[in-house]
Structures are given as C-alpha cells and as structure tokens.
Design goal:
792 residues, single chain, alpha+beta, five-stranded mixed β-sheet, oxidoreductase, 20 helices, globular, seven-stranded mixed β-sheet
Amino acid sequence: MSEVPLDDSKLVGKAVRRREDPRLLAGRGRFVDDIALPGMLHAQFVRSTVAHAELASVDVSAVLEVPGVVAVFTAEDLELGDIVAQLGRPLSEFVPTAMPVLARDKVRYVGEPLAIVVARDAYAAEDGLEAAKVSYATLPPVMSEEAAFAADAPLVHAEAARNTLVDVSLFATDGIDGIFDSAPCVVEVDTRTGRQNALPLETRGTVAHWDDREEQLVLHTCTQIPHQVRTVASRCLRLDERAVRVVVPDMGGGFGQKCVVGREEIAAAAAALRLRRPVKWIEDRKDALTASFLAREQHYRARAAFDAEGRILALDADVVCDMGAYSCYPFTAGIEPLMASAEMPGVYQLPAYRVRGRAVTTNKAPTGPYRGVSRPQYVMVMERLFERAARELALDPVEIRRRNVITDFPYTGVNSITYDPGSYLESLDLCERSVRAEGWYEKRAAAAAEGRHIGIGYSCFSERTGYGSAAFAQRKMKVVPGFDISEVRMDTSGTVTFTTGTMNHGQSHETTMAQIVADELGLDIAKVRLHQGDTDRITYGFGTFASRSITIGGSAVRLGAAKLGEKLSAIAASRWGVAPDEVELAGGAARRRNASDVLTYQEIADIAYLQAHLLPKDIEPGLSVTATFDVFNDGTFSNATHACVVELHAGTGQVEILRYVCVEDCGVAINPQVVEGQCRGGIAQGIAGALFEQVTYDAQGEPSATGFMDYKVPTAHEIPDVLIHHLETPCAFTETGAKGAGEGGTIGAPAAVLNAVNDALRPTGVELDDTPITPETVHRALNGAPNRELSV
C-alpha cells in the first residue's frame, strides 16, 4: 500500500461540498414525475393476476367507456418487437428467451403487463384498469428451484428444458477430488438468500412524446442506461435510432434496478407514438414491489478443503440463481450465476476450484442487477466456510483469514483473473484492531457471563471494478459494455462543459467529475459543468453500474480535460513563440514558465473562436475535444474488511447491531465524503438483506409483500453508526488512481452480520446459513432448533 501526498491546491482527495445539494434540498430538482407537457396523457397497465397461464382473451372493449380514458392498447394493437437479451454461448449453456413488451399468448408472473390504458389523468387510468376483462387457462406455477428442476415440471418457456436458462461450468481444476479426499479438514455450507427489491426512492417512470420538428420520439425516463433504452426502443418500435432520443432528468436512486430496459417505458413510448400526444407513466409502489426487476434469490452448496494449519486447498461450489420469468436486457439471466462463478475466490489464495452456475426460470418477476450482483451472496458463502473451518481447526476466525488473504501482487488466481495491488491484509488487521481497541471482546465475555448473547463477525472481500470491454467480453455478452466517451468543451467565457456516458442517480457525479476536470485544467470548479443522460448530446455511453462511473467514466473525463489543456497550451505557446511544454495551466490561465506572460482562458477562447485567423495552421478553430477510455486487462479491485457486533435479545429474537466498522480501500478517493456516503448507504442495504427484506410468494405465485407492512425495510433506528477507516492503494489502470466504491458496503455487510449472529449463538450449538435472519429464526435458534427447521 502506498500513500500519495495531496497538493493543497488540488481538489481531488478533498471533501468538496456536493454541488447537487442546493438544488435538490431546496426542491428544485427535476424528476420524471415533475415533467408536465401540454396535452399530456397518463398511463397505467393492466397486469396479470395469475402467475402462469395461457391467455385465452384480453377484452378491453369496456375500458374505453370509462370516463377520461382516451385509448387502450394490447400487444396485438401495438405489434411491437420483443426484447431479447443474448449471450454468445451454445444452447447447452444459454437459452435465449423473448420478453414481449406486452404479454401475448402466455403470462409468466403476477404483475406481467397485458395492456396499457391511457387517460386524461392518472385516476381515470387506474379506473380504466378495472374495466378490463382477462380470461386465463391457468397452468401450474413454478415457484422454486426444486419445482423448476422436477422431472414433470411445467415449462415456463417451452424452449428451456428443465426450466434452465444458464448452465455453465467455468472452472474445474484437475485432481480436485483427490484434494478433498486427502484434506485434513473439509467443511460445507448450504446457503439460501432471500429475493429482494432494490427499492429506489423514486419508482420507475417515463414521459414520452413525439417531436414533430425533429421527427423524433423523445423519452424522458429514469434509467441508468439511456443509450441502451434508445437502442431497444428503436428496435421494438422499428424506428431508426436517430429517431429516438432518451433524456434522463434527476433520478432518485437506481441501485441496478434501472440498469435494464423495462417493458413499460417501451409501451408508453409506443402509445405516445401512436397517439402523437405526450404520455406519462409513473410506477406506483405496489407495482414497484411486485412487478419490477428483483434480485438475490440464490442457493449455494459449497465445500472447502483446508490443511491442518488452516490454509484453503480447494473450493467446490454449485450455484443456482432463481432469475424469475425472463432474461433482463442487456445482461441476460447469466448476470448472477456468471458473476458468482467467475469471482467467488475473492481475496483468498485458492489453489483449486470447481464451480457450476445455473439460472433457473420461475413464475416470478424477472431478476435484474442489484447493488453488488451476487457478491454479497458468494462472499457470505466464503466467509461462512472460513468460519466453519476456524471452528473445526480451533483457530481464531481472524487468524485463519490472515493466513489465506492475498498479499503478493499482482496475483493471478485459479479463476484466471489477475488482481491488482490491494490492502487485503492491512484492512483485516486494522479492522480487528479497531474492534479490540473499543473493548468489544471484553464486552462479549462480560455479556456471556450475564447470560446475554453478544457476537462479533468479520467479512473480507474485494469488489471487482473498472470492468472494461475485455472483462465483459469474457462473459460472451452480445452487448459488450466497457468503454466510455467524454467531450470537453470550453466557451468564450472560459467556462468548461463536459459530458460522460455514465448516469448519475445519487453518486455526486456533478461534484466528483468536476473536481477531476478543474484539477486537470487549473480551473475554478464553479466554472465547470457536467452534462449527462441525453442521447442526443452524449456521443455514446453504457451508463452507470458495476462501480464504473469514476473508474471508466472519470478516466475518460480526465483524458478529455488533458487534451483540452494541451490545446490551450498550444494556442498560448503559439502566441508567445515558445514550445507548449513551456506553458503551465493554473488559476484559469495559461502561464509561461519562468516569465510573466499570462493569457487567461477567456483570451485564449477568443482566439480559438473569434480570431481564428491568429491560429497556426496546425491548430483547428474551437476548443472542443473528445476522449475515450477502456480497460483492457481484468479490471481493478477495491477491497475492504467489515466487522459487526450484535446482541441477540432472547425474549424477542431481535438482532441489535451494537457496532459496525468498515475499513475500505478504493484507491484514490476523489471525494472522501462521497465515498463515506457510498459506504454507509451500501452497508444499510446489506444489513437490510441480512435481517429484514424478502420478497415472498404463496403456492399459486401471488406476491405476499405488496406494501411496506409486509416488505420490511429498516429505518434509521435499525441502522447503526458506522466507523469508517480509509486506506489508499492507487490504481495503475485508471487515469485518476481511483477504484470503484459504489457497491462495497452492500457486498460485505450480509456476511459480517451473519457471522456476528452465529458468534452470538455459540453457546447454543446452532448455526445459521440463510438470510434474511428473522426474529423468529433467532428466537428458535436460542432455543436450540436445528438450522434447517428455523425458517418460519
């Protein structure tokens, strides 16, 4: 680990106040639902009330009789193309399935859209839904992994045998069975994690309208991937891509749920195109909980072999992910099993590895990305294996990790991934020291003497970030994300406007990326402005996911700013008759080294735009440059260690978090305050998955959690204060030295909480491996119920 001294004049590395806050806190933000256009209509969707059925009929004739209803469209009316996500894998590994924008012949989950009702106001649209009459020929629903694999199981998709969309075995070390046969210690876990909703504060929504002047369909939508929405909309609507413009205003969170193309935004666009009137659709909270993209329902059977000193020798894992009814676009149903299979070894030196990853399709709402994508789950599996091995070998849980974490870099793992330098051991040691310094080990012992149950749990992990095109190509995706493009432009007032293909939905891009540009050009940050989220203004971009905004997008921005700086220096040098390397940029001006000559940026811009005859022939007029950035290796890895201290309350089974410590290393922190906000928010979502949130269904496929009375979301009362320590191992593969920071909190929290709960349960002899951990489960565990009998 290295430390980089900060230049006090630089903004990168400082907690610059968020530039977004004054607008947002004063209520001046502009979200999709704030958009009101002349003649705007409102849309809602007739949705399936059964989980699995052939569609006998969708009778919407009576809908038009409802006061205020203007139009209603079914799949037959709109004749849209399907949304099809593809992997370049053989059918034995991946089965592509088509997701119709509106269901045609069959419904595959409760909440699937069947028709779109368009009315003069939102209330009339809701009234119109009740007039629709849908007849079903019901089929037995497939509601679990076991049901999906059953020999006589009904098929969710006729083309997917055994209801399997993905079945890959990425790694299988020769001789691994012999390693297990001869190992002194073999431990196993059988872990299930609950289905979750990403639950952004702002639900999904779209305002679509036809622009006659531009002959263009304009979609104002809250998405993390505007260019991919444009591509899918143009193809489904059979328009040239130029004829579709996607604009993203302010967005109230996404967490991955808005990182896929939704059917509803395409249907709303189709209705606006047909009616030539603006159409607004805003998802209500019930639909957001039951019909949006979900995540996390996974089942791991894993075993690990250790030597007598506690060093891991081999890992063998079977991963099954319940992906719901359809593949999401563009990532496909492979997003969870492929992530888990490729990266499960994590921070540990693993000599031998075998894994099988499968995605099953069931009659539930589809699965999409959610903050962390499988990493919270496989980290939990790995950490449970180490805890179990520590117990079997009578080793301290921290010590067994210490003996296994990667310490020599770069390190190429058994998974064929090369890990760049990180602070794996340092973060583990510092986290343990922090817990000990606060006396939690003594408090645990004192509580045990009083008959109370306090436990301490750790988790160590890395977060692969900076996925470039090469990394995504390894998944054999047909749509290969990776690069980013940035345009940086200076006007005649010396103000800089720059673009990024990433998409802000709470990560402070307006602040952090402006810090990068301001530093590169020696410019006041007040004179730097970001544009994003408009496919007509942004050349191209893959949006925001996988902690790529600063690693990939920020690198392109820095390169663009550097290119603009080179042009500013060249113009100034030509005026002074010196070489460009004799010019430095600072304080909003070009300055000749070791001389008093100064040209302000306004003066240089006047030459570039208004007095182009003064430019040398080899310098083009204007001050606009474009830069691209991609990563052509395996990406970079942030890392962290989390520690959690809990107390279990015997009377209620309540899990109270007494302390939470996070030691994180995301390379150069562009804005430490923003990084801490990402850590705290991520940890809150990780705790939510560990203790509270779960989407459940009854035997007929009806969602059981349709509101916050049933879908249990933690409040500020349940989320503890978090002690955060920052380490800094600059990244050699990004232009800023930064690694990603967006998902780490969520990745580490479930394992830390689960391990702490199990530590508190030590006297009972019961161990838990599933999440969420409910009070009922803990209450029964404190009374000695076996693990697999704990679910209530």
